[in-house]
Specification:
The complex is a heterodimer of chains A (426) and B (168).
Chain A lengths: L6 E4 L4 E5 L6 H10 L6 E5 L8 E7 L2 E7 L5 E5 L14 E3 L2 E3 L6 E3 L4 E3 L22 E5 L2 E5 L7 H5 L2 H9 L7 E3 L4 E5 L3 H9 L4 H4 L1 H9 L18 E7 L2 E7 L18 H15 L1 H9 E7 L3 E5 L3 E8 L5 E10 L4 H14 L7 H14 L8 E3 L16 H13 L5
Antiparallel strand pairs in A: 1-2, 2-21, 3-12, 4-5, 4-7, 5-6, 8-9, 9-10, 11-12, 13-20, 14-20, 15-16, 16-17, 17-18, 18-19, 19-20
Helix pairs in contact in A: 7-8
Chain B lengths: L1 H7 L4 H16 L3 H5 L2 E10 L13 E5 L1 H12 L11 E15 L2 E13 L6 E14 L2 E11 L15
Parallel strand pairs in B: 1-6
Antiparallel strand pairs in B: 1-2, 3-4, 4-5, 5-6
Classes of the chains: A alpha+beta (426), B alpha+beta (168).
Chain lengths: 426, 168
């Protein structure tokens, strides 16, 4: 059954408007749980977080408490962290290594492959009681692309590989930083709440239009640190260099920008210090010899903010961050962010990567707190939604030339996909 | 064996407390230029991620890992009206207690203290940052300079505390 559209997508008049009700309505949030989070592939974790057999991480994914773990044979699993007996959480540790997970309530014990191993006093059950049928439940689907593991609650969903569509090319570009093709999540997770609807974080993650106004103090800091911040040279640009917005299929999209802000791999800026020049040159040489000049330049000289629909962002910018977020109510989201780096990185290169991360990203960074402020101000302003109903998102629409990172083409891609999945007629 | 005892005699808890209370007042009053005068030339300011309290900022992702120059830049930023997360500025109120001198080595004094920092902003809920401060102070005449300032937040995650956009 189709429902009314939440967007006005008028290609003739080159106007795109979004109904603000989608950012404030409890009914729509409930519907998103089924239509978006119940059907899409949702990021669970990275293979590097589980080094060997028995390693586990417990976390919430799409609001579900899960255990992301490896069994004794080293196979990866995603198990619902809920006892089959009476429903208690069975793994209370955040991370560790375990052969078994025991529910503290009545002692039901599961293997790290989810199988039910032990039921205290199981002689009191009738013969029909089948332990083999009482393993920990798990999401319908659990697949990875090059170490990025996703779950899907919809058994009929297309495989992850197909779902990711052209986003795979941009994941590859991030992984190409590593000589062995192995990236790892670095210790230290940033978890914080933002008092705003989760979809505002999707927009914010790729919207380069906001940089000069929201992040002028970051631009000042870069300039103070010796980075040349030149005025934009072409019509429509708001940043010193050109960047594009690229559609990747199935609601995924990315920015693809000529870098001006420095790259720990492998574009030196004065902020990194003179002593770093030599090693960054070496990293660059390795990229060129392995990938060729052209691909090496793609890896080193462009920065990209990638959105995997609906709620995974991989920002390959001042550093690499893997960030996911999930609604906790219509006006609140919980954000989880990690840093990602090549496994073979030297101690100094790793330190530089982490330092570069903090120049922009995270709750103590020089930019993210102002993003959070902007999103929270939007949410506060939306209290007037019923009298001031439509958000304007037409920037760059219908333009003959390429779509820029400072246009709103990529935001429209998100909202069109979201609108479609919510069952609305476009 | 007598030297360490003599060194320990150079500093009293009351002196350290006076210094920390003074610092807290400067921070709560946003007198950040005066606060910077309390810092040594090689001062560092760290806030580890909530799950990495004992880690090194060179190998683990922190929330804040500033050297002296970065602190200078951070203060330029937070005093700018375009630092939106702190404009209007947060009102903060710090309570410091359980001050302990952990170690004295030469002119360096390691100090631990508990803190509660209440943060208020217009339209926003109260945020209570609870944790411990770890200082390395350097003796400087009849006062101290801060060589290292480490803030360990007790919460398992920042969660509703949101950002650390002010000097915690």
């Amino acid at each position: 059954m189709s429902v009314r559209s939440y967007i006005i997508d008028d290609r003739e008049r080159k106007t795109f408007l979004l109904d603000r009700e989608v950012l404030v309505s409890e009914d729509i949030l409930r519907k998103e749980m089924a239509h978006i989070f119940g059907r899409c592939w949702i990021y669970v974790g990275h293979s590097s977080e589980l080094g060997g057999p028995g390693d586990f991480r417990s976390r919430k994914v799409a609001g579900r408490p899960v255990i992301f773990c490896r069994d004794q044979a080293g196979e990866f699993h995603c198990l619902f962290n809920t006892c089959r007996h009476r429903g208690a959480i069975v793994c209370t540790q955040r991370e560790g290594n375990a052969r078994r997970f025991m529910c503290i309530y009545h002692g039901w014990t599961y293997g790290n492959d989810g199988q039910l191993l032990r039921v205290p006093g199981d002689d009191a059950y009738a013969e029909a009681f089948d332990k083999a049928a009482h393993g920990l439940r798990r999401p319908a689907r659990f697949e990875d692309y090059r170490g990025f593991w996703f779950m899907c609650l919809d058994a009929d969903a297309s495989p992850l590989h197909d779902y990711l569509a052209d986003a795979k090319d941009y994941i590859d570009l991030v992984i190409d930083q590593s000589p062995s093709g192995a990236m790892e999540i670095i210790a230290g997770v940033q978890e914080y709440d933002v008092a705003a609807n989760w979809k505002l974080m999707v927009e914010n993650s790729v919207d380069d239009y906001h940089l000069p106004s929201t992040h002028s103090t970051w631009l000042n800091f870069m300039a103070n640190s010796g980075v040349r911040i030149e005025p934009p040279k072409e019509a429509g640009l708001v940043l010193p260099t050109k960047g594009l917005a690229v559609e990747l299929g199935n609601g995924h999209f990315t920015t693809d920008n000529v870098n001006f802000r420095g790259r720990p791999v492998a574009k030196w800026i004065p902020l990194y210090g003179e002593a770093a020049k030599r090693e960054i040159d070496e990293i660059r040489s390795e990229l060129v010899s392995r990938l060729g000049e052209e691909r090496a330049a793609r890896v080193a000289d462009t920065n990209r903010n990638l959105v995997i629909f609906p709620n995974l962002v991989i920002n390959d910018g001042s550093s690499v961050t893997v960030r996911t977020f999930y609604p906790e109510g219509v006006g609140k989201m919980h954000v989880t962010a990690w840093a990602l780096g090549p496994v073979e990185e030297s101690e100094n290169a790793r330190a530089r990567r982490l330092d570069a991360f903090l120049t922009f990203y995270g709750p103590g960074g020089f930019a993210t707190p102002d993003d959070v402020e902007a999103l929270e101000l939007v949410q506060q302003g939306l209290a007037n939604w019923s009298e001031d109903r439509w958000s304007e998102m037409s920037r760059g629409m219908g333009k003959e030339s390429e779509q820029l990172n400072s246009d709103e083409h990529h935001l429209r891609i998100f909202w069109r996909r979201w609108n479609e999945l919510m069952g609305a007629e476009a | 064996m007598t030297a360490p005892v003599a060194a320990k005699d150079l500093v009293t808890r009351a002196e350290v407390e006076d210094f920390l209370y003074h610092e807290a007042a400067l921070l709560d009053e946003w007198r950040l230029d005066a606060w910077q005068e309390l810092l040594a030339d090689d001062a560092c300011y760290y806030v580890p991620s909530n799950d990495q309290l004992e880690s090194d900022h060179r190998s683990a992702l922190f929330l804040i890992a500033d050297d002296r120059e970065r602190i200078r830049q951070r203060i330029i930023r937070v005093q700018d009206p375009n630092c939106h997360a702190e404009y209007p500025k947060s009102r903060t109120r710090r309570m410091i207690g359980n001050v302990r001198i952990l170690d004295v080595e030469g002119d360096l004094i390691s100090v631990a203290a508990n803190f509660v920092c209440y943060r208020f902003r217009r339209y926003e809920r109260i945020r209570e940052y609870v944790g411990s401060y770890r200082y390395v102070l350097r003796r400087c005449g009849d006062s101290f300079r801060i060589k290292e300032r480490r803030v360990l937040i007790d919460a398992h995650e920042l969660g509703t505390l949101g950002s650390v956009s002010f000097i915690l």
